Amino acid sequence: MRRYRTEIAIVAAGALLFLLLAYERTSIAERERPSVYSTYDTGRSGYRALYEVVRAAGVPATRFERDVTALEPSVKTLVIAGYENDPSAKPLDEHDAQTLRRFVLDGGRFVAIDAEFAGANDITPGIGTTYQHPGGSEAVPVSNGAFTAGVARLRGTIEWYFPFGKSHGTPLAANAKGIVAVWYRLGRGEVVAISAPELFGNAQLRNADNVRFAYNAIAGHGPVAFDEYVHGYDDNLTMWGVLPPAVHAAVWIAIAIVVIALIGANVPFAPPYFPEPGNERTSADYITAVAELMRRSRHRLPDSYELADARANFRERLTWRKEHP
Fold first, then answer.
1. What pTM value is reported for the model?
2. 261 vs 42: CA distance, rounded Å
3. Tens digit of pLDDT per residue, the chain (325 long)?
4. Which end of the chain has fewer CB atoms within 10 angstroms, the N or the C?
5. According to DSSP H, which parts of 197-236 are helical?
6. Domain 39-232, CATH 3.30.470.10 — does that match?
7. Where are the beta strands (DSSP E) in 26-144?
């Protein structure tokens, strides 16, 4: 029984070590993941600073962490930033695109901050198509209005543009290569599309013009929601759901190892094995060995006084038993 307990302890220790290694591997992967356009991300490209600035300015902004179909009617401005490079992304589909279209048609403002817009195939309703032209680092306002008020120059990485003369809506910012931001109405609502998400990352918000442009696009149209569901955040997730796939696999493997060990320790699969008794000698073996030695030496016991006394004592005892039955 003690041996079985030792085996179980060894198996349990191995399973625990396996879990720790899986968790460590996951932690390393988390530390090495790229910076993404999420308001939770504090890296170079993250939008944590933008979110804090908007809230500090008094804008009623929240993080939205559910499917877009569950968007509350109180939300009047929805911000979705690009998630293509996010390893935990939950891409939007055609059904979500229809929901976003209804949101805009009913009077909402949709702020789409992404690089690659795909025209009619994009989730942004009524948007055009962008093309890539790397190397841009600045853009300037090209129209006067509420969205460009106080903005002189936008600075940051710009690689995708709406083409001149083909973009739908009013250009807001551009450079010699193309249009970086457009605005247009759709039904009772409006869409602001920006093709350079790096402009509003944590590293670029040191530029006051970038902050003003982002604020103008987001504020002034009621409560704001930053969609974090597309970046993998879900407020309906359980503790098990939060764990990455690597830890899920490690847990199931560890459970399987422990179950197999318990079965092996408690369920017999063959008759019990009884080892042969050890070579334990008794006094009879000793007497036999001595007798054999004496026989080989042809030696007889001497008729000593001790032997004569023993013989006399035996006779006396035998006689007493006969007289006293």
1. 0.67
2. 45
3. 455 555 556 556 665 665 565 555 555 445 556 899 999 999 999 999 999 999 999 999 999 999 999 999 999 999 999 998 888 889 999 999 999 999 999 999 999 999 999 999 999 999 999 999 999 999 999 999 999 999 999 999 999 999 998 767 899 999 999 999 999 999 999 999 999 999 999 999 999 999 999 999 999 999 999 999 999 888 665 555 555 666 667 777 778 777 777 777 777 777 776 777 666 666 667 677 777 777 776 655 555 555 566 667 766 776 766 676 6
4. C
5. 208-218
6. no
7. 61-64, 77-81, 109-113, 131-141
